Amino acid sequence: MAAARSVNAESGREEKGPEGSCPESVTPGATIPRVKLLDTLVDTFLQKLVAAGRRPSGIPEEDVRSALMPYFLQQRDALQRRVHRQEAENRQLAEAVRAGRGRVQELQREGKARQQAWQALHREQKELVGVLGEPE
């Protein structure tokens, strides 16, 4: 989530507002209990809702759900569209594979027919050489 920024008129530098900062500073490498981290996230989120003009119901679960549900629905729809595109691509690839397998089988049949034709020709050639090569 983006932090609120303001420009200090005296120095001309950007400063992060209260929305971007955590209520407690955490030193790098320190372990934060998950429950405390979740509480901090929910509190920060509720502060952002109030700052944005949305009035929470007083029940954190409902407030978070009402704010996050549109986002999750949007993500679900985007994922469904992506899955449908991937399924269509997979169908096209499967059809190409089936066509390729059919072509391989056709080429195998042609190769086998040519081999049989060559073997028949070779047998006839041996018979002809045998007939012509015999001294009488």
Automatic annotation (TrEMBL):
Pfam family, one: Nnf1
Subcellular location: Chromosome, Centromere, Kinetochore; Nucleus
Domain of life (superkingdom): Eukaryota
Chain ranges passing through the membrane: none
Claim: Coiled coil is one of the keywords in the record: yes
GO cellular component: MIS12/MIND type complex; nucleus
InterPro entries in alphabetical order: PMF1/Nnf1
Region (Disordered): 1-30
Coiled-coil regions listed: 76-110
Alphabetical UniProt keywords: Cell cycle, Cell division, Centromere, Chromosome, Coiled coil, Kinetochore, Mitosis, Nucleus
Principal localisation: nucleus
One GO-annotated biological process of the protein: chromosome segregation
Protein name (Swiss-Prot/TrEMBL): Polyamine-modulated factor 1-like isoform X5
Gene: LOC110573550
